[in-house]
Every structure is written in structure tokens, then in C-alpha cells.
Amino acid sequence: MATALITGSARGIGAAIALRLASDGYNIALNDISEAMFENNDIMDKIKALGVECEKFICDVSNYEQVEATVKAVKERFKTIDVLVNNAGITRDGLLARMSEEQYDTVIAVNQKSVFNMSKFVGNIMMRQKSGRIINLASVAGLYGNPGQMNYSATKAAIIGMTKTVAKELGSRGITCNAVAPGFIKTPMTDKLTDAQRDAMLAQIAMKRYGEVEEIAGVVSFLASKDASYVTGQVIEISGGLSM
Ligand code: NAI
């Protein structure tokens, strides 16, 4: 049975992706920053109820050594890693004039360096397998920029460059690498926005509604599927028509 590793999957978009890939038949390696993220949380039970195996691997994806050890542990537990979804991400918003160095550096480490860490160690396994799918969570902020998010949009634009580079480096080994760029999706991350910020977003969306986490998970499922076997280095915007 094939295995999918999804970072930051205790809640939000990551949890929805894990659930969807479990229903597609993958064994699931969950990851999050702490055990606490899995307390009062039934994601593991929901996945196991689908008849696949599921294990959680606690690690800070921005930490190179922790990621190396975690990827080794996932490989030992499940034997193969067939799909990697680099989903873990944070925001530390603030206008440029007031953004601290700490706000900038933290977001770069968690959102961007994590993609290097994970892609390197999982990529090495996939190269030996001569197959694999890597799917990265970018954002419309990386495509168009967003006031108050210089740090975040930098990471999401970087992820698009990283996606294309990995696609070019690993394509000959049967590995695809693509990105999805969600728009405004209802999750704990976006719950933090003010009403005014929310209304401003809605005004720009052709479909006049926010996205659901399952609508991201569906596209990730497609990119992991046989149907997407010749799709690589692409960025699929999932934003209800934010910009066309
Ligand atoms: P969320 O905050 O609900 O979930 C993110 C998860 O990542 C949390 O469980 C968190 O504990 C985990 N995480 C954070 N730092 C970590 C670390 N260092 N190591 C391991 N796990 C860590 O966020 P959401 O909304 O589900 O976002 C998921 C991804 O989708 C992120 O990359 C985000 O940037 C991206 N995205 C979200 C959008 C939205 O509207 N919610 C829009 C565009 C992109």
C-alpha cells in the first residue's frame, strides 16, 4: 500500500488533505509541531476508520535534523513514501515598516526552509524508488503579493520557484512536483483576519464565497493520482477566481 506524508496535518487544510488521501487508499503519516496539536482531535480515528494505517510523527519541519530523523522514521514504519505534501505553514503578519526581524525569519524558516528540508530527505527516498509525488502549498499571496505579508508572500513565491526546480531535477526519476495556490480558505489561520479584511477579500472573488478545505484536498488528490502522471512543475490556483 502506498504512503502519503502530510506536514502540519493536525488541523486545517493539512488534516483535510490527509483525510482525502486516506479515502484514496493511502496509508497516512501525519505530522505536526507538538503532541498538543493532536489533543481533542479525532483526525487519526477518522483516518483509521477508512481502513488504512495512520501514524503521527511530531517534528518541527523548519529543523533540518528533526526532519532527517522523521523522514527516516516514516520510511522505517511504512517502507515507502509515495506522496509528500508540504503543507505546514504559519503567518506573522505586519506592515513592512513595523515587521520585526524575528517575524520575518520565523516565517521564512517554517514555510520555506521546511520545503527544502522535506523535499531533500523525501526526494532522496523517491529517487531510489524511481517514483513519487511532491505537492507544495503555495498561496495567492506568492503570486500577487498581499499587504502585511512581506514575509509570508516571500515564502510562497519561493515555494513556486522551488517546485519548478524540484520538478526539473527529479522529473527523469519519475517524480512529479507541483504546487497549489489557495486563495481565501476557511481555517484557523484565516479566522484570525478582521471582518474588514475578510470583506475586502470577498469583493475580489469571482465566486463570492470562501473556499472549503475539501476543495484544496480534491486538487491535491488529483495531483497525487495516476491522472496527473504527466503534470509537473505547475501551480494550480484554487481561489474561486481571485484573479484571471
Ligand atoms: P493552519 O494554521 O490551520 O494549519 C497549519 C498546521 O501546520 C497547524 O496544525 C500547525 O501546528 C502546523 N505547523 C506550524 N508550524 C509547524 C512546524 N514548524 N512544524 C510542523 N507543523 C507546523 O493553516 P491552514 O490554513 O490549514 O494552512 C495550511 C497551508 O495552506 C499553509 O502552508 C498555508 O500557508 C497554506 N494556505 C492557506 C490558506 C488559507 O486561506 N487558509 C490560503 C493559502 C495558503
Can you walk me through this structure?
- By secondary structure, this protein is α/β, with parallel strands linked by helices.
- It has one domain (3-185, 213-238): NAD(P)-binding Rossmann-like Domain (Rossmann fold), CATH 3.40.50.
- Helices cover 47% and strands 15% of the residues.
- The chain contains nine helices and seven strands.
- It has helices at residues 12-23, 43-48, 64-78, 101-129, 140-144, 150-170, 188-191, 195-204, 213-224; strands spanning 3-6, 27-32, 54-58, 83-86, 132-137, 175-182, 235-238.
- It has a seven-stranded parallel beta sheet with strand order 3-2-1-4-5-6-7, sandwiched between helices.
- Helix 2 links the parallel strand 2 and strand 3.
- The longest helix is centred in the middle third of the chain and has 29 residues, at 101-129.
- The mean pLDDT is 96.
- Bound molecules: 1,4-dihydronicotinamide adenine dinucleotide (NAI).
- Residues 7-8, 10-14, 31-33, 37, 60-62, 87-90, 110, 137, 139, 182, 184-185, 187-190 line the site of 1,4-dihydronicotinamide adenine dinucleotide.
Features:
single chain; 244 residues; alpha/beta; Rossmann fold; seven-stranded parallel beta sheet; 9 helices; binds 1,4-dihydronicotinamide adenine dinucleotide
Identify the CATH homologous superfamily. NAD(P)-binding Rossmann-like Domain
Distance between the termini: 39 Å
Largest sheet: 7 strands, parallel
Number of strands: 7
SSE succession: EHEHEHEHEHHEHHHE
Predict the CATH topology: Rossmann fold
Total number of distinct structural domains? 1
Instruction: Extract low-pLDDT stretches.
Output: none
Helical run tally: 9
How does the overall form come out from the CA principal axes? globular
CATH architecture, by name, is: 3-Layer(aba) Sandwich
- Rg is 17 Å
The portion of residues assigned to helices is 40-55%
Largest sheet: spatial strand order: 3-2-1-4-5-6-7
CATH class: Alpha Beta
Arithmetic mean of pLDDT: 96
